[in-house]
C-alpha cells in the first residue's frame, strides 16, 4: 500500500538532523538566561571544568562551568548550595542533552564575597590557624616596628601620628605595598617573608584604611593568611574600620580595629607608663619593707627561743665529760672480759692436743690416696683387655678377613657390587678385589 500522507508529505530526519535543529532552535531562543536552582551532582574532572545539575522540586537541568570561568569565582561551589546562574542554553549533540553553559554564578542569600569569606574562615579555623595557643605574645615595650602598608594612604599617617605622640623613641620601618587589587596579597606575602629574613623588627603591623568589601578583599587571601601564621615575628592586623573583620585579623597575633588603635595597643602613653612604673616602684618598696620587717621579727623570735648559748654550751660540755667517763669504764671492763675468754680458749686448745688429731688425719689421707691409685690402675687394665678383645672380634668379622679365606669381591665399572651372575653381561669389564690387591677382568661367559 502507498503510505498515508495526512495534511503534508512525510519528512524523514536522521537523529543528527533532528538534534541539530533542536540545538539551533534552543540556542537562538535562549541565548542569555538566568536560572535559579540547587547544585546537585557536583564534580570536577582533571580537565578543570565543573559539571553539575541545577534542580528544583519538579525538574533538573544539566550545567557546565568551564575552567576559565570557574577561576573567576570568589567562592567554592558546594553540593546543595542554592545559586543563581547566568549562561546560555545549549544542546550537547553527542548525547542529545539540554544543558546550561554557565558564565557566572551568584549564591542566593549571602553575597559571593560573604560566602567566600565564610568558606575560608571555616577551613582555616578547622586547621587551628585561629587558636589562641599558637599566637605569639607582643613585647611589652617594642623599640622597633615594621609597617606593611601603602606609603601614601591615610593609615600610615594615622599610625605614625599616634605612635610618636605616645613614644618618640620607637623606630619605624615602612615596607611599601599595594593594599588593594589582585597584586596586593602577593606583595604583602613577600613583605612578610623579607621582614622575617631581615630579623630587625620586633613587631610587624599589617594595615590599611577603610573601604568596601571589594577594596579590603586582599586581606582575605588564603595564602596571605598562611604567611601571617608562619611568620616568626608577631604580626598585628589593623584593617579598615572597627566593623570590618578580615581573615588577616583572625589569624594575626593581635587584631586592632583601626590603624590608630594599633599604635595605641603597641605603645603605651609615656606619661601613663611613667605613672605605672612609679606605682610599681612604690608597691615594690612597700612589699620589700614588709618582707624585711617580717624577717626581723622572725629572727627576734628565734633568738628568744634559743636563749643564752653559753649556758647551753656549758651543759653540753658536762654531758660530754660524763659520757667519756662512762665510755672509759665500759671499755676497761670489756677488755678484762675478753682477756679471760682468750685464756679459757687457750686452755681448751692445749687439752685437746690438735697435733695428734692432725697426724691421724694425715695418715688417713695417705691410705686413701694409695687405695685410689690401686683402684685406678686395676680399672685401666680391665678396660684395656676389653678393648683388645673387641678389636680381635672386629677383625674376624671384617670383610678383609673374609677375603683372606679365599673369597673375592666383584664389582662393575661404576663400583656396584655384583651378587648374582645375571647382573653381569657378556663382554662387561669387572673389578675383582682380593685379600691383597685387585684384578681387572672381562666377562667371557655367564653360567646361571
- CATH top level of one domain is Alpha Beta
Distance between the termini: 107 Å
- What is the fold named in CATH at topology level of one domain? Rossmann fold
Care to count the β-strands?
A: 13
Report the uncertain regions.
none
Order of helices and strands: HEEEHEEHEHEHEHEHEHHHHHEEE
Report strand %. 15-25%
Mean pLDDT: 83
Topology:
Layout: H1 15-29, E1 33-43, E2 50-55, E3 60-65, H2 67-70, E4 82-92, E5 97-107, H3 112-127, E6 144-149, H4 154-166, E7 171-176, H5 184-198, E8 203-208, H6 222-230, E9 235-239, H7 247-251, E10 254-255, H8 259-266, H9 270-306, H10 309-352, H11 354-397, H12 399-404, E11 409-412, E12 429-433, E13 438-442
Parallel strand pairs: 3-5, 6-7, 6-8, 8-9, 9-10
Antiparallel strand pairs: 1-2, 1-4, 2-3, 4-5, 11-12, 12-13
Helix pairs in contact: 4-8, 5-6
